[in-house]
Design brief:
Layout (H helix, E strand, L loop, with lengths): L1 H43 L1
Amino acid sequence: MYHHVRSARLAAYFTHRKSACLQALFYWIIFLFIFRMWQAMQKVA
């Protein structure tokens, strides 16, 4: 019983970590996209 609870907690922790990593990746992609757009506008100006 205790082991099962522990493994469930571990699974929840890992899914939380995975979602956090995905969120960080998502924000990083948005940041890169905006940065590229800004660079392109600088070249045009």
